[in-house]
Every structure is written in structure tokens, then in C-alpha cells.
């Protein structure tokens, strides 16, 4: 999986850290996550603790989208076989599917391709009846890949709005509150359009805390936000939406456009959403590999967030405490964390991403021999084409140059120079970031 593994392995501790990274991404792979969560015996399909009698349905279709949607779909095709009638998913990377159509869309901004593919998906959903089982696949990236402008809004309206929200420092939950109210499918509206069909939502989370209504802007999940909430986002962050967006949100606030469905809406009577993969899935796999290597694993959190360069410092302090006192874990040990850290660009904006900033900041701050590795599980860290980085304090020989790179938000250039970046290419999954701090024992 790690294409440049030979270049970044320094010693056995590096190997353990990289093994943990690979195991984490493997476990979060959509095919593996799907087959772990979904099974079939004869005509009984089991998803989590819920069963579906396939004999009760005249059609079984798969629709949805996201970076990992292709892998989930391929796994479902192998499980369902001839029972599957068809469907359509929108993905970021081309993938071969047999029965279900797959379209490649654009991310992070919606495009004409996204809108055209989503329109076809909505047509399939609208045609569903009480004898249809819809398997609705939703993974990270779906908010952009599944795009259906509401009312008279245009694609350009959605692009401009998304760009302003993403560059305006708006948290994802608030971005999605806006997206839900500018869309014909988000915020529970897939459920509304699918009724009276049975809908099984199959979700892989790229959201810290796994709020189902935030994953992909919650097309199959009840929406507790309103048009007024969406308008407030722009005021709170001093952002100006395009005039058409402003007018549409005002129409919704004034009751001239229907609200997204709330939790008590009867449209959800035949809808069940199942979380089939998340960051914890990845961390558990990394912990198992660490234990097999003779390292005691300790999962610190799957909800890490904040400025990457600052979040790194307390985590390396924990590694130092472990080395010095055996608390909270006795080395050799592996500390694990996951979540989604961020970068505030204050320099000219060079190469890099939050995982690379985490590693460089941690290596600069660390007083010890721990190896620090961090990757985005989708294989693309921030604005770069690498997944993340791996380093220890000894790797940072030119500390002044390293600090300058950090201040300039150009850590990717520096880490590439010292051969510390991790290259995987697109992984086909997305369950946020995975961080590994491998702490050697006294004899290593």
C-alpha cells in the first residue's frame, strides 16, 4: 500500500508505525467494512442487527455516492448477485462495477458531471415503490459528489457558496446545514423521495463523532436544522452568499419552500441507517497489529480535532511521559489517535496538509525516540498528493529550515526533501486521519 515504504523505513520502530498505518487503512477499505457489517444467508440480508427478507421485494437497487461508494457497491454486488436489479453511484475515482452504473464526479466543488449523475439517481429513487429495497450508499465526499440544486438555483450558485464556506473557516456541520437547504436530496430528502420504498442507508463516516446527519449532508437522515439556521451561518462567519442563494433561503424561512423533513416525519417510517465503518474501525486494526509486534497499544481518541501543529504537542508529551515513567502505557508501546485536524494558512500556502504539519510539529517538539506517523486515510493530505508523513526527532537535522517551512505552511516541500512523506495514492476510502506514535522499548 505504501508505495515508497523502502525510502521511509529507518528502523524497526518505523516499520511498526507503518504496519499500523497500513492495517488501519486496510480495515477501513470499503470492501472489508461492507463484508464485516453485511451478510446474507439464502434470501435473508443482514445489516448490523437488522434483517431484510429479499423475497419481499420486486427490485433491489443501489444508489449513492462518495469516495468509498465504489468499493461498498462492489462488495454489495458480490453479496447480492442476481438479486440486484441495478442502480447508480457517483465516485471520485473510476471503479469497475458489474450491475450498478458508476459515474466519476468532481470533488470538493460540484460539477456538471455530478449534477447529471445525481439527476439519474433521483429518477431511480422517484420510481421506487413499496416493493423496492433501496440500498443507499453514503461515504465521505458525497456532499459534493451528490449535487442537485434546489429550485431555480444553478450549479454556479452551489460552487460559489461551497467555495466561500470552505475558505471561510466554517465547521463542517454548519457547512452541511447550508448544503441541506440548497439541495433536492440532502437533509433527509432521499427518504422523502423514496417513500414508500424501504431504504437501508449504508454509511461510512468521515465525520468526527459519527453524526449521521452530517455524513454527506444526511440525505437519508432526519434534519434538525432549518432555513433560518442556514441563513445564520453566513451572518455568523461574515460571508455573503450569491443573491439567488440568499433569496432561496429567505423563501424557505418564510414558508414558501418546504422545510427538510424533521425526525418525526413519516417519510422515515421505512428507513434505517447503518454505520458500517468509521475511524474507530481503523484504530482497532492498528492496535491489533501493534500488539502482534510486541508493542502495547493505547487508543487515545478517535475524535481528535484542532490546529494540527498545536494538537501534535500534547500527544508527543504523552509519548515522553510513557518513556520516562511508564504512564499511561509501558514501552514498547504505540499511541493511536484519529479524527480530523485542520490547518490555518498564514503563509503563502505551499505544499502540505494537516497530517504533514502534525508530524513536523511533533518531531520538532519531541524530546525522545518515538516515531510519529500521520495520514489521511483517503491518501490525499490537504493540498498535496501524499497521504501524510513519518519522522522522529533525529530526522529533522535542519531545525531552522523545518520551522520556516512550518510557518510558511510549506511542510510538504521540507518533508519531501528529507524523504519523510508517505505515498499511497488514492485509497478508495475515507475515515479521516490516523495518527501513530511508536515508542521503542529500552533495548531498541
Automatic annotation (TrEMBL):
Q: Any one cellular component term from GO for this entry?
A: cytoplasm
Q: Which residues form a coiled coil?
A: none
Pfam families to which the protein is assigned, alphabetical: DUF4147, MOFRL
- Lineage top rank: taxon: Archaea
- Cite the MOFRL-associated domain residue spans from the record: 17-250
Query: What Enzyme Commission number does this protein have?
Result: 1.1.1.81
The cross-references to InterPro entries, in alphabetical order and at most eight, read: GK-like_C_sf, GK_N_sf, MOFRL, MOFRL_assoc_dom, MOFRL_protein
- Tell me the keywords, alphabetical order: Oxidoreductase, Plasmid
Is Nucleotide-binding set as a keyword in this record? Answer: no
The residue ranges of the MOFRL domain are 334-433
Question: What would be an example GO MF term here?
Answer: hydroxypyruvate reductase [NAD(P)H] activity
Question: What is the official name of this protein in its record?
Answer: DUF4147 domain-containing protein
Organism the protein comes from: Haloarcula marismortui (strain ATCC 43049 / DSM 3752 / JCM 8966 / VKM B-1809)
Lineage, uppermost ranks:
Archaea, Methanobacteriati, Methanobacteriota, Stenosarchaea group, Halobacteria
Name of the gene encoding the protein in the UniProt record: ttuD
Amino acid at each position: 500500500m505504501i508505495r515508497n515504504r523502502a525510502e521511509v523505513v529507518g528502523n524497526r520502530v518505523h516499520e511498526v508505525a507503518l504496519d499500523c498505518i497500513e492495517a488501519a487503512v486496510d480495515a477501513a477499505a470499503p470492501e472489508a467494512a461492507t463484508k464485516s457489517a453485511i451478510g446474507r444467508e439464502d434470501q435473508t440480508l443482514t445489516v448490523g442487527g437488522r434483517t431484510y427478507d429479499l423475497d419481499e421485494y420486486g427490485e433491489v437497487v443501489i444508489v449513492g455516492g462518495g469516495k468509498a461508494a465504489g468499493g461498498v457497491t462492489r462488495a454489495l454486488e458480490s453479496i447480492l448477485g442476481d438479486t440486484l436489479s441495478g442502480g447508480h453511484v457517483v465516485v471520485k475515482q473510476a471503479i469497475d462495477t458489474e450491475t450498478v452504473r458508476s459515474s466519476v464526479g468532481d470533488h470538493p466543488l460540484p460539477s456538471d458531471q455530478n449534477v447529471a449523475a445525481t439527476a439519474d439517481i433521483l429518477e431511480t429513487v422517484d420510481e421506487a415503490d413499496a416493493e423496492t429495497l433501496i440500498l443507499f450508499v453514503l461515504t465521505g465526499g458525497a456532499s459534493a459528489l451528490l449535487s442537485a440544486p434546489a429550485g431555480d438555483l444553478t450549479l454556479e450558485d452551489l460552487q460559489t457558496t461551497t467555495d466561500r464556506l470552505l475558505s471561510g473557516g466554517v465547521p463542517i456541520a454548519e457547512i452541511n446545514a447550508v448544503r441541506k437547504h440548497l439541495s433536492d436530496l440532502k437533509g433527509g430528502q432521499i427518504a422523502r423521495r423514496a417513500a414508500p420504498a424501504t431504504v437501508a442507508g449504508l454509511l461510512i463516516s468521515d465525520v468526527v463523532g459519527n453524526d449521521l446527519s452530517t455524513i454527506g449532508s444526511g440525505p437519508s437522515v432526519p434534519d434538525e436544522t432549518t432555513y433560518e439556521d442556514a441563513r445564520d451561518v453566513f451572518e455568523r462567519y461574515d460571508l455573503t452568499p450569491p443573491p439567488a442563494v440568499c433569496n432561496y433561503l429567505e423563501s424557505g424561512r418564510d414558508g414558501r419552500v418546504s422545510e427538510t423533513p424533521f425526525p418525526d416525519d413519516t417519510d422515515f417510517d421505512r428507513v434505517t441507517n447503518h454505520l458500517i465503518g468509521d475511524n474507530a474501525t481503523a484504530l482497532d486494526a492498528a492496535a491489533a497489529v501493534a500488539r502482534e509486534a510486541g508493542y502495547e497499544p493505547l487508543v487515545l481518541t478517535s475524535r481528535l480535532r484542532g490546529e494540527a501543529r498545536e494538537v501534535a504537542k500534547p500527544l508527543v508529551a504523552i509519548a515522553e511521559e510513557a518513556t520516562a515513567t511508564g504512564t499511561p502505557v509501558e514501552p514498547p508501546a504505540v499511541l493511536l489517535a484519529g479524527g480530523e485536524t485542520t490547518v490555518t494558512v498564514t503563509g503563502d500556502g505551499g505544499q502540505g496538509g494537516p497530517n504533514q504539519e502534525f508530524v513536523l510539529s511533533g518531531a520538532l517538539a519531541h524530546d525522545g525516540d518515538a516515531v510519529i506517523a500521520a495520514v489521511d486515510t483517503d491518501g490525499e493530505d490537504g493540498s498535496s498528493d501524499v497521504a501524510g508523513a513519518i519522522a522522529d526527532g533525529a530526522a529533522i537535522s535542519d531545525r531552522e529550515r523545518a520551522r520556516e517551512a512550518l510557518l510558511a505552511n510549506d511542510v510538504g516541500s521540507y518533508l519531501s526533501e528529507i524523504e519523510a512523506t508517505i505515498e499511497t495514492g488514492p485509497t478508495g476510502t475515507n475515515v479521516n486521519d490516523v495518527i501513530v506514535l511508536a515508542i521503542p522499548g529500552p533495548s531498541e
